[in-house]
Amino acid sequence: MINLNALDFSYVESLVSYFVSNWYIMLPVAVFLYLFPNLVESVSIFAFGVVIGGGYISPLIMGWLTSLKLEVITSVKPELITIVIAVLCGVIFYGVYKAAIFMGSFAFSFFASLFLLRTFFGNSLEWYIHLAIGLILGIVAGSFASKNSSKFIGLFAVVLGSFVISSIGMAFFKTYVYQLSNFIHLWAILILFLVLLFTRIKILWGNKK
Prior knowledge:
This protein is an all-alpha fold.
C-alpha cells in the first residue's frame, strides 16, 4: 500500500514556489491560457515569427536596403520597416507551421499505409492502388492534423493554466485566509487543479457533438 506521507513533493513545492513568487506575471498568462486555449497556437506561433522577424531578419534586410542607398528607402522611418517585416514574418511563420504539420502527417500516413498494404496484401494489389490509397489517407490525415492541432495545444494550455491558477490561488488562501500544512496545501492544489481542468474541458469540448 502506498504511504502518501512518504511521497516526495519537493519538486512540486519548488514549482509552486516559483509560480507564487512570480504571480504578477504567471497569473495573467495562466488566465489567458485557461480562458482562451484555442488562441494559444496562433498567437504563440505568430508572436514567435514577429520576434524572429523583428530581432534577426529585420536588421539583415535593413542593412541590405541601406547598402542600396535608395531614396525611397531613406525617406521611410526604419521603425516602420521593422514593424512591417516583423508582421510579415509572423504571418509567414504561421503558414509554414501549418504546412509543416500537414506535410508531416501526410508523409507519416502515406508511408504507414504503404507499409501496411504491402504487409497484408503483398504484391496482390497494383502499384497505383497502393499509391492512390496512400495519397488519400495522407491527405485526410494531414487535413485532420492541421485542422485540429490547435485542440492539442489548447489542451496543454488548459492543463498549464489550471495548475498555475490553482497553485497561486491556494497560496493566497494559505497566506490570507487559513494556514494549511504543506501536505494539505499540496493536495488542495491538486484537487482544485482537477476541478478547474475538467470544468474547462467540459465547457470547451464536452458539449460539441
